[in-house]
## 1
Amino acid sequence: MVTKKHDEIIKAESKDLDFFYADGTQALKKVNLPVYENKITALIGPSGCGKSTFLRSFNRMHDLYTGNRYDGEIVLHPDNTNVLDAKVDPIEVRMRISMVFQKPNPFPKSIYENVAYGLRVRGENNERTLDDKVEEALKGASLWDEVKDRLQDLAFNLSGGQQQRLCIARALATEPEIMLFDEPTSALDPIATVNIEELMSGLKERLSILIVTHNMQQAARISDYTAYMYLGELIEHDATDTIFTNPSKKETEDYITGKFG
Amino acid sequence: MNQNQKTSDSKDLDVIRSLIKKHKRNDFIFAGVGMLVIASLTITLLILFLDLVLDGYPRFTLDFFSNFPSRKALQAGILSAWIGSALVLLVTFVVAVPLGVAAGVYLEEYAKKNWISDLIEINVSNLAGVPSIIYGLLALGLFVYSFGLGQSILTAGLTLALLMLPIVIVATRESIRAIPVHIREAAFAVGATKWQVVLNHVLPYSYGGILTGVIIGMARAIGETAPVITIGALTFIAFLPPAPISTEIPFLNFDWLEAAFTVLPIQMFNWISRPQHAFHVNAAATGAVIILLTAAMNGFAIRLRYKIRKKIKW
């Protein structure tokens, strides 16, 4: 039923994923969703539908708070690691899957140290390697030209859009396999939003992207696949063109045409 | 018709305007009362301080700081007292800061949130309010008799450290809590462990608040009299503890920890209880010194907090 080309490789997939918050509310119900390699997969749906909860399961962010519980699997290929397995260290997962948040959240440190932090955490102390990787990551996030002369400035002195690109550079520096974006442009102005969208389209050459957005136009513009979620369930998942022009479910059509949401 | 509309509109406007006027009057009244309260507090403190300064004024000489206490009021000074206070505070600082910060970090970052941590939290807050003489009694039993530390600078420093500990713990926890969740999550998201997050983020971003708490705690400790009397500080002491720095290797000397001592508030207390008026002048001068020290420490804490807050904005 899902229209996809034959040559798509699955990078990760959730299998019957349930998620329960500490207070017992079930935020995800049997979600099955693949994330294709070098593609952008967008999650859309009304507020509270569980799309952010789903995204944050991929790097085990829920583990930071006690009482949260997962059921089911998120399998990471090609090594078939179930990242939700209690035996798999969440730190290891976060070293492979990085994340960009809704609000730009640079550390109150220099631009350089922000980008270098992920590498330092991995024990990289060689200044030349760090210099090279920081430059590469900043270039990858199209920020290098704007900051190359003031790498030691505090990150807070950058504009909102620049801060978000800095956060992308920080997530990029460690060469992750998958990058998660949690509504990365919702706090930004239209011009900064366009920058980030172009950036993401370029990034998918190097990694796989899963993005949560409540801006349907954004999903239509940048993603290859789109999944529509409602009340913790995955309603429909298909190639973005199909979802937006010819959805197979009535609920999806209602949401996309604005009858609901 | 049109005319009618207008009059009814302006009537509504009148109602709104009189309402705003009424509400603004409340503003004005509250601001006035607040100002009165603040003014009366500040003025009372100022009068007290001025009174001390005027009484003690004749004794503000270099000799006063460099003389030992004496039977002759005019030759008596606070040398042994201020050095004693400084050394006791040094011990307090060295003991209370690492313990308090570590406890605060543990409670905030590592401890599971359950009824035990709630119990500890209530206890820590309670400790901050326990009368200081209780600490003195505890120290007398524990440090002086059980541990055999004697009536020494070490005992006094440990006692005041106990007194200061809850202040440091509470300050640490509060400044850690002020770090926004999204910064913390950002650090975890790149693969940092808890310890890396604490070391690279939590402590660097909260040390301004922690330091403020430490200084305020020290300012409290410097004026404490009851616990230090309880453990048996001397009221008249005409010698100094052994110097902490020596000219021989290893250049540090810890004999002073075991030395007998006195501190500023005890010296003041001692002079007040003398019948001769000349000693009361000395007491007033000592009081002024203590208040100045406390004010200087608090002022430094406020300045520090202001400076650090300017650098880190969430």
## 2
Amino acid sequence: MAEILVLHALNGLVWGLITALIALGLSIIFGLLDIVNVAHGDLFMVGAVLAWYLVRYVDNFWLALVLAPLAVALLGIVLERLVLRSIDVARSLVVTFGLSLILQDAVRSTFGPTPQRMLPPFEHTIPVFDFNYSLYRLLAALIALAAIAGLFLYLHHTKFGTWMRAVRQDRDMATAMGIPTDQVFMVTFAVGAGLAALAGVVATPITTIEFRIGLVILPAAFIAVVVGGLGNLPGTAAAAVLLGEAEGIASAFFSPTTARIFSLIFMSAVLLLRPHGLFTRRTG
Amino acid sequence: MKRRARRVLPFAVVVALATAAPFVLSEFATSLLAEILIWSILAMGLDLLFGYTGMLSFGQALYFGVGAYGITLGVTRLGWAFLPSLLLAVIAAGVAAGIAGFFAVRLTWHYFAIITIIFSLVLYFVALSRADLTGGEDGMSFEVPPIVDFGGVELSVYEPLVEYYFVLIVTVISFLLLRLITRSQLGLVFRALRDNTNRASLLGYDTLRYRWVSFVIAGMFGGLSGALLAVKMRYASASYLFWTVSGDAVIWTVVGGAGTLVGPIVGTATLITLRDYLSTWFENHQLFTGLIAIVVVLTAPQGIVGLARRLTTRS
Amino acid sequence: MSLILETRGLTKRFGGLTAVDRIDFGLAAGELRAIIGPNGAGKTTFFNVVSGFLPPTSGEVYFQGRRITAQAPHRINQIGIARTLQVKSVFNSLTVEENVWVAAQSREPIQRPFRQAMRSSGVRARVEHLLRLLGLDGHRNTTAGNLAYGDLCLLEIAMALGTEPKLLLLDEPTAGMSAAETAGTAEIIRALAKDVSIILVEHDMEFVLNLATTISVFHLGRLIAEGTPAEIVRNSLVQEAYLGAEHA
């Protein structure tokens, strides 16, 4: 019994970290650009699809791990410059929803509507208690963790990262101080998109790949962002992991669907009791 | 008198056109029009909540689904006739909105939007897991009883004309009701809440109570819409509860013009027609729908109706 | 002498900052009181706590002898206290007339969903009276978001009055007004004071000295002096507070 619990907890951790990548991207885009990116899940999907193509034709997962997020980040730059510059929250909802439709349809007509699967780059397992746990999943978790750590290092220890934080704090003040806010917006969206795509690549061997997987993971990412506290990046990451774990552990006892229901109810309770997020300290 | 006539005239013309439609349009087009009318009830309810009261809900699918299952289960499980089942659907949706709203209206902005999504997700998964009751994603079809079966007169939705006119009548009544509400004393309070909840509270309004009322009304119309779709499709499924249904309603309302009540109808009609017509020519109709939504919102932020009004008042 | 408003030991702390510090405040019915003090003295926070916008950290508030501490703002308004805000806050997309109407119809027990807005004759009479009293009659169809600042201040006052208060809290009612507008507002407030108890928070000393019967002086969250305008002007503590704040 304990083993099953550990198995589910591990799976929950892996998915929680993957969701955290997506949620962090969503959060920085919202925090800096005031954009509610409904297409964010589809950026995750595009990352997964690109990875599938790269692995199929170049047979190198590690290359995909690098190229796919870069490609999507570039796409993010184009989108930001074209349609998302200086847009208010309400409009961003509709525009990104439109983008979401476009991305899904584009993928559906090129990749096709049939779900595909992809093997992990290696099949090794690692013994955990009485069973063998996929080593790839652990690696996926590590990659996600490294990316998250990398994001925080970037934000706190590089000049550009500091600019991003400044723009988030006070856009006008940042402009007055000479920070190139336009560039910051562009890079922020690119980083956010890239993180989602990275999550997609990492997730490809452990999920089905089809044009609608973005829709499934987007609500979880949004919930993590809000429950973690808007603008609270560590909180968001923690909330995503919490959500993943809650679902994972619950699915040891219940069906996955029921597990989802419980974790969602848990999240509602958090929202209602601590609307500023689980991890944000209330001011005033 | 003249001013009144100017307001009533466009409405009368549209209703007249809609009434004549089945004789002018093909069967497919008439059926599409009926679907548009049904969906616009959902959008109008959302407009009351969002356009008039300022509460952006991304979870109207919940009440839509409750309405759809309400009528389906009322007919199949309780063996009720058409109208009682329809009433059950609307009331069930209202009750669901009452319960969910009690919690949701305490939150604002993104928090409110997120919790409405969470609630609708919960019910979606519940519907999936209780496939014995709901048919899950595959859904359950049912035989729709006649609308009226009295004194030798039987009106059944299996007659295309009956179905169409029933939907048209319900839509017109919904529009008129919502119009009455938005122009009423209560409607003025809603608009005040939209502009400045804080100030409303300082003026003695229990803002939670009024937000809840708006939420429940929107939920009931959502349920009505869902019930009508279930009737038209002779079928209800968990997919009715998926959050993209809520998203669609928001898009239609915003593209058509939020806060105008006519806007949601225009938006729904435009986007659904586009989707259906384009899908006969292109595989990628979603892509074009997305493009159009983007273009409209960027160039006409008040939506189609807002743009039209600005253009006509300027001249 | 009955006190219409009384606070006992009212305190409000924000983390390490004590904005309102053990204030014992009393207002008799019919008074026209001004609260003055340098910036950061806690005047607006005091209003926020009394009107229910913020709960106090400790202490009590009594209105007409009834304990109203930490009640919801809408309930406090229904009981009889109305206020205007320092940062003017109205219903921007509604017209001036609609704004005042919303305020006035708040006294109706039910907000009817099927009766057309702005029809009730009783409420209409009050709305018309308020529009005329505050000189907003000519702007009745202007969208509130497009109002000139001076008129916006007057609209706020009209709306507060629409709720038929017994006590009116005016937070910097003339901030940003021209000299002529300020004089006009003084007249309006003086006329109002006949029927309503009023507390004003103001920075314009001349305005306050000419208008108020009694002045309370706040400094760093404490009530440091209270008296007639003549007394306050001579008060050394008050002078120190203002001079000290200037040099700070």
## 3
Amino acid sequence: MVIGFSQLIDLLIGGLAIGCVYSLVALGFAMIMRATSIIHFAQGEVMMLGSMCGLTSLWLLPALPLPLVLAVGMVSSGLIAVAMELAVYRTLRRRRVPIMNVITATVGMSILCINAARIIWGSEPLRFPELFATDAYAFAGVRISPQLFWIMVMGLALMGALQLFLKHTRTGIAMQAVAQDPETAQLIGANLTRMMAYTFAISGMMAGAAGVMLGSMFFAFFEMGFITGVKGFIAATLGGLGSIAGAMLGGILFGLIETFSAVFLSSAYKDGIGMILLIAILLVLPSGLVGLWQKRS
Amino acid sequence: MAEALVGRSDAPQGERSRAVRRVTWIALAALILVPWIESDKFVLHILSLIAIASIVAMGLQLLLGGSGQLSIGQAAFYGIGAYASALLTTKLGVTFPLALIGAGVAAALASLLMVPITRLTGPYLAVATLGFSILVYLVIKNEEWLTGGSYGFIGIPRADLFGHVLRDAMHSYYLCVGVAALVYAVFARIEGTRFGRAVNAVRQDADAAAASGLRVTLIKSQCFVIAAFVAGLAGSLYAHEVRYLAPNDFTFWKSIEILIMVVIGGVGSLPGAILGAAIVVGLPEILREIGDYRMLVFGAILMATMLFGEGGLAALFAAIGRRIGALWTRSVPSAAGNSSR
Amino acid sequence: MSVATSGGSGVDRSDPAFRSAHAGDVLLQAKSVTRLFGGVRAVDGVDLAVRRGSVHGLIGPNGAGKTTLLNLIAGVFPLSAGALHFGARDITRHSTADRARGGIRRTFQNLRLFLEMTALENVAIGVHAETRCGFFDAVLRTPRQRREESGIRERAMQALMFVGLAGLAHARASTLAYGHRRLLEIARAIVAAPQLLLLDEPAAGLNATEAVHVTELISRLRGRGTTIILVEHHMDVVMSACDEITVLNYGRKLANGTPAAIQDDPAVIEAYLGRAVEHDHARA
């Protein structure tokens, strides 16, 4: 199937945009897994709730500019994630229940959130109002959708900001220390509870941003966190669980592959391509893409 | 037999297994008597579904509690078994007993595709099984010529045994409970054998097992195939109980439900898998009264039960059983002196 | 050197007849074995020749690469360079399980028992590879399975008796005292009568009495014809149990020879033994 250059750029930007969404969800999985060793099954629901809250803010204030909608989504998701941690997960950790129990509790949390959302917002898909300019940007003879373009830019900007935060701020470095070695980190003064809360807050905020972006690309509905959460988790695994950079890379890769294979292969099996790819990569690199970097050294 | 797969008990072996065997026989007797006490068709139907779910859960118990492999893809084999049985009986006119076995075999064959994945561990294995589950779901949904796709597979006949069609809810209850009891007995037999020890060793320390000459990947693969076969059997029973199949019955979410059954019941406990199945299938039915809020409450209950820690419900019941047993022996004067803690 | 030289069966390894019967018969040969971790050369071009029927010690300061070398022989990770020969076979690429099945068994420095199983069950795992009954036999409890199972338990009991743990056969491994756990590891490793036994610090953390028991066990095993590679820090155990010792330092072979020769080697003294040499000389 022959495609034109313009179409190629379209697909590329589209793939990168959805890839950024997956990356934001994926890095939340990675951060939480690094800090607590659990698979946070409710991460997709955190994203969904951010989307819903962002949409609700637009209902209340229709003239709200995009950056504020994003902020609302991020803040609400961040707060919800912290609430989950402080109310439930921390209690379980303190009781030293086995890890499988904590993971199952996140499943319970997921069920709770999905059904709460269904009760509050109903089960119909909800459209976001137009947040972006509708006229395509023309650039070097190519037409680019503003929505996809700005989502990609915002996603990359958020991820860049996160990397800077983690590497160059005291809190960020402390968070990394706690994730690597909680006991030693405590000895040098890190407050474990606070660091865990920050971890959940940040992963929540990233998910919230993803939710607003995804909602504006398609629509928001109570189950949207489910499949996107699964894809985010897969992307995080692809990149090597526990590696934040790997999660970001994995998400973008996943988005690109999904977008291109929907066009070139079957769109019915578009979700499936990612799965096959994931399994294939894991068979060759059992710890994800991170294994590739390690093999070289 | 309470910790049949794992043998994690601390108490003296002899008296524990006697007590456990007693409880098991009582439970079996109770199950046989149930339809005579409660003849409501809907209740029997739910109990049949619980029995079916417990079969899949017991298979996962072998995987997770036995060999230590977290699979969140068992719904795939459940679905393959269900559709295989439906196809065999409707399109090929195969009788039910053969279709039942055929369903198990189909699921087992499909699981051979997963054998390379058994090299993976932890969340990587989990994600790979998840991917497989989603793939199977997609095939079920898209290949309408085979499965009816989203329109569903209708017209599945009732189960029939030796020519006698099981029209009565009571008879299909006995069929489901019978197969579940058989699967339970099979898995319980594994304890104390070379195979059972090998599976446990692989879970506890795969490297030490390899250092003793165990082929870890082979053992893990065997567990996968067995669990898949059993899930396939359950799928067949489901197909002929409900007589209508839709892709939504076999999503990744169903795999999670099966996992929840095992965790609630207690990882490593065979009876726990049955308890867990009863809760996961039965609780939403009991909560039906609450209407819209029922899954909300279910989620909350799930989180709350996770506070119970190690061993889940099975450990809880075992602890209660021990207390009752201690009270019993204390109330019966014995020449050897009272039981003491 | 005459401490603990006679094994349980009365073999005197200082007997020239014994020595000549075994001399030159190398069971395990490591040629230029190297293992890299990132940039670190944990083991660097080490040659090792372990004679059949001997107890071969591997000593060196912490970080010298002893356990890494042992792990390489056991197949825990692949060689970065070099080759390993076991008897006539090149086992360089063999997996851990294949080496175990081929007759190389090991104990672990930090004890890797199956804690939820009883002592007997732990040892039973040691004979898993020599037996056959699988899932269907287990479920059906065929006569073959029952025979095999009682055979397994018999052999496991014998191994437990050999190390002195018979009385604790049905105790859960997690309830055993540390010293008994060490013995259980050994029992599990020897139940299948391996040709080559790799002991990774079997006396670590043991008191003097327990250490003597281990030394005596090693000599009895040697008496049975088992070849042993022993990594150990307990100098009493090493000097009294070993026929030959290889000293490693910074991943390289520093010296190789009899215990007496090693104790006198100035390079070894400088790197490692220090004052302990004078102490041992005073006693011998």
## 4
Amino acid sequence: MWGRGRCLGSLRRLGNAAAVLMVAGVSGFPVSAHPADGEDGVRAAAVPAPARQQQLIHMVRHDCGSCHGLTLAGGLGPALLPVALQGKPVEYLESMILRGLVGTAMPGWEGLLSEGEARWIASRLREGFPDER
Amino acid sequence: MSVKRWVCTLPLVLAAVSAYACPDAPPRGTGDLGLVVERAIGRLQLVESTGNTVLDGIEGLGDLSHASMVYGRDGRFAYVFGRDGGLTKVDLLCRRIDRRVVQAGNSIGGAISQDGRLVAVANYQPGGVKVFAANTLELLAEIPAEYGEGKRAKVVGLEDAANSRFAFSLFEAGEIWLADLSDPRRPQITKFKDIGREPYDALVTPDGRYYIAGLFGEDGLVLLDLWHPERGTRRILNGYGRGEQALPVYKMPHLEGWAMAGRYAYIPAIGRHEVLVIDTDSWTESARIPVAGQPVFVIARPDGRHVWVNFALPDNGTVQVIDTETRSIVHTMQPGKAVLHMEFTPRGEHVWLSARDDDRVLVYDTATFARLAELPADKPSGIFFTARAFRIGF
């Protein structure tokens, strides 16, 4: 329920509680919870194909960028530069991308992105997101 | 004139000449000119809507993601608000940057005063409003958006109001402020608190009387009567979502571009595939029109007969046209990939659309919906015609 972008009325109050649980739970995941991870934190089997990666880069720069800025230095949403994401595990960022954060303007993108894609974006954000080719 | 006096005047004369000399530019009016934002490369395209052509490119404007602009009353200068805090004064006749300041770390938009002398910028970081002299871009006033203890809110929905006033909203604080800049260096602020959660954008009605902020954190809008600010704000369209779960909002709607047809206003619903129709006599909901996606811009053709709507992801390749007599969709089109903005020519016979992911600007006939022109552009977003110079709230 709390995976959708925003809840209304009584759902919102319920959602806020769920969001707190989500943040607490997800950010607590140890990185080693995914033994199949490669060194860069991306599950090898789920890595998007190169053509899809280009689409994702475009999407992050332009669609995420409408709130986080084209340079990802922030806007209505917070900055997504590596320095701003220090201490935020890839799993947490992946979950944030897929499920959003209730009570904020951050929507869940799970209708448009797979887990592997969200994870790839999260990893790239942590190391400095690539520019469009 | 004595020699001494003449020498003293010389620098002024030279300054005037250099400010106005455009040796290559033939005389022309600016009424059919406009600027198209190429968001990724920090460039503006100077366009004209008589022959539907690109005249020139103006570069060096920094980060133009989410850039917007206002025009000075002479229709010659545009004031461009960049995401990176840049405020750039662009000369459409000389086709160049007249002057530029980087005035904040992160900004979202701005407004120009009724008399054209003041340009105000809404900033996210640091949160607040800065006011500049339109002619020189000299900083005249700073209004930090402080609330609570030491906190500063992001400022959204900055609009011009009569008599050197500006109205704006504080996103995190849930406040509307009305700043009187009759004395530009000493702004007088009236604060309206507890207006609702997370105002995300605002508009003023075409007559300049009402300032209306949309809320993101609640279902509803907030109305401030600028003729009677002493009466305070009031909530309208409370709970238009009827407690139903909203969809994820992949792009914030924009309220500027108040779509007014007669006494009815058309605005985007948040997280819903609907356009809301408000009766501006009673400020109650008159109807809701199902549309193809989550609306972003809902803009009336200047004659008010049609309202054009574009959408957030994943429906951002679709544009729909609502007939305001029947309140039904009369046309649905797929003009291109990622349609970000729509701008009507001053009398509404054509509309220009930016198709970001096709790298094109498209021109349509608004009576026949025929495509008239395609102009190449690098990731185009906002399109701004000089006719905005003469409209309150633009």
